[in-house]
Design brief:
The relative contact order is 0.05. The longest helix has 45 residues, at 19-63. This protein is flat. It has one domain (4-100). It is mostly helical. It has helices spanning 19-63, 77-100; strands at 4-7, 13-16. It has a two-stranded antiparallel ribbon with strand order 1-2.
Length: 102
Amino acid sequence: MPAHKLNAVSGVGRRVASLGEAGGHLDSYVTSSHQLAGAIIRARCQIDLVSEYRTRLIADVLSGKVDVRDIPVEPLEEREELEKIAGHAEAEEEEMGQRRGP
């Protein structure tokens, strides 16, 4: 069955899919949504495992089972950015204090 053209109120023609085309689109949508749901489930499982590992690692460090004192820590970019912001805030506070005077 060929697709038909319908005139909308605005005068723009719209294509209506045949029943066979619509069924194909629906099948494609269902397959894609099942694949996406599976990916979401797998991602949630991985997040749960990482969270469990994190909790266990923190517990082991706090209980003394793992010694982390000699592990080198690289500075984080976020930390540097926060230090810059804090430095600007301190400078602004000092500037405001100098403006007010004694």
